[in-house]
């Protein structure tokens, strides 16, 4: 087990860097969909383009999730984080200068390339700098991501009405640029070492290691001296592909991503068409959907790290999501739409749940980098098809019933994988149990 010290002691820049980076990862996604009507007033946006913009995040996240370990091996964790944040900031500003659907899509792709790298980097950054405060730091950074999910839809339309949609889209680049500053300062000062931890006995058998992993509230860090995040390598990836636990975490993450990006792309339109609310009210309800992830971000990491509550949290999230969808299908009333959206928004629990599992299901930062890349790339590949699929299905049926049933089916199918992801063991322990020494 690791020793503890105050969160800010000797690592204040790392705290700021992680939180500002986390805030920048979702604001780019959540700030665009409420403004489609404003953008369409300047140049046409077809349903196909909207579907592609909805699909762009998971596609870019999957591609750059696979490339990020290669970049990290060549440049280091902190340098790649700076590159990712600068790409996000540049893309956000360029998106504000879009002149047609093509430039809007290209600038959005640049943003999500940076976000895709940041998604992979955050869990190992937390594990590197805060192995003694894993639950607390995961809570803080997932909370920052939740804030950046529900605040942009809340303010996007008022800012666009007052200053124009270009300002409303570009202003979020300030946070990404600010997030790069702590990492640049750390690199200039040469302070990118991790937190020293006591040596751990390495003479345990594989069976003892697996038993310890199942019994301890946090995974043992099998390193001595300062933590250094080693690059993910092909050997670890090849092993992850053969492990049900890794695939189950990836499917939990993919389910979370599907719910998020389908909602960011189509939830306002679904609410307008099925319940008769106005476009402005639909934007507020999208913010409500995103807001439901905030309480989850505050409590989920601590509940998982301290109490191993993965399975109950997963079941609650899926059950509430299904009830919310059933309400939109069976009782699409404007009077009850807030209740249905709030219940559906509880699926936001899955996002911090999947992120914390990436950290606690790995013994070492090296495995955490590989698992983060594998889980997020596989999850985003699975999620990428759904925004455009639902748009096509809606165009063919001229109704949102079948798309809502598809979303519900994704939740139901994820249940057995969520139960597997709740097993109290690390990736290394599962490999040792199945195949011998890691």
From TrEMBL:
InterPro entries assigned: MFS (IPR011701), MFS_Cyanate_Porter (IPR052524), MFS_dom (IPR020846), MFS_trans_sf (IPR036259)
Pfam families associated with the record: MFS_1
Name of protein: CP family cyanate transporter-like MFS transporter
Entry keyword Lipid metabolism: no
Coiled-coil residue windows: none
UniProt key word Translocase: no
Keywords in alphabetical order: Membrane, Transmembrane, Transmembrane helix
Primary localization class, coarse: membrane
